[in-house]
Write a structure and sequence with these properties.
The protein is α/β, with parallel strands linked by helices. The protein is built from six helices and eight strands, in the order H-E-H-H-E-H-E-H-E-E-E-H-E-E. A five-stranded mixed sheet has the order 4-5-6-7-8. The chain has a three-stranded parallel sheet with strand order 1-2-3. Strand 4 and strand 5 form a beta hairpin. It binds zinc ion (2 copies). One zinc ion (ZN) binds next to helix 2.
Amino acid sequence: MIDAGWPDTFSQLLQLLNQNNISVNLINHLLITHFHPSHAGLTQNLRDLGTNLIVHEYQVPFINNLNVMYKKNPKANFRDIANGNYVVLKDWDTRSYFKSIGIDGELISTPGHSDDSVSFILDEGYAFIGDLPSLPSEEEAFDLIIDDSWNHIKSHQVNTIYPGHGEPYLLN
Ligand SMILES: [Zn+2]
Ligand SMILES: [Zn+2]
């Protein structure tokens, strides 16, 4: 599973899975594109059921940032994301881990929306990019970090982009 919605929406997630005949117990692994509330709010709920959390090494400090934010500003039913016991993938070698769980692909750091943003690239040509902003039009300011992230994504064989919000689209 990629990303795990707002806190306190677990029953909706279960309902959606149910409608699609997917048992929550089949979700063995969870990736979070970045640790913002709308993408990581249900992380611990899934881990409680045995799902393995996989993080990019650059994301590690951001996990606790989310816990701290919710401590300062409590929201109903946010489950603190427990420390440790997750898989940390090193920037230079994420492919071998995915291979070991039967997936051909890799996780790359693609900052721009946030410093902990990552994109998951499947060799089939799919890229799950979280909230990486689309490339600016000519009137907008050029953002070197965002541009670098897109270049990194495009250095792989990618044809379809799956943004965190909205419909997938073809990369041209
Ligand atoms: Zn975000
Ligand atoms: Zn978002």
